Amino acid sequence: MNDLIIRLTLGGYRRFGRLIYPFMGPFLALRARRGKEDRARRYERYGYPSTERPDGPLVWFHAASVGESMAVLALIERVHALGVNAVMTTGTVTSAKVVAKRLPRGAFHQYVPLDLEQAVDRFLDHWQPDLAVFTESEIWPTCIERL
User: What letter would DSSP give residue 140?
Assistant: First the structure.
């Protein structure tokens, strides 16, 4: 019974995502006008990459806030020092600015994709993370399911 409830809930969530997908462009444009999205990098929210994926193993780190970003940077530095590539996603303009100043050279920042099938699939198809690390509070159903 629990499995059925979970499948029905996730199915409804995905269907709702397909319904709202066409409206995300205007929504993100409005957020950009208000300074809550990076106008030049809005395409990343649809899962389009900001750079090529480097060869070798890659760990995807996601941090929702500036505080979470700061907390995970030390781990990224250690992983990167071992020769493992890292891509870090955040969801806010402020956290992106903070991360850009502190990420080790050769590690990448990208805005987290919208939790919509098309965006998540595009992001995962490009980055193909070997491991995903989510900090604290943000767990996105479509993203977790696709991993």
Answer: -
The verdict on whether 37 is a catalytic residue reads: no
Report residue 76 CA to chain centroid gap.
Answer: 15
Options 37, 44, 68, 136, the catalytic residue: 68
- Please name the residues in contact with 112: beta carbons below 8 A apart, sequence gap of 6 or more: 45, 62, 89, 90, 91, 138, 140
CATH class of the domain defined by 57-147:
alpha beta
Q: Residue 122 pLDDT more than 70?
A: yes
| Predicted TM-score of the model (pTM) | 0.85
Residue ranges covered by each domain of the chain: 1-34, 57-147
Which one is predicted more confidently, 110 or 14? 110
Q: Which two tokens stand for residue 15?
A: 């269907």
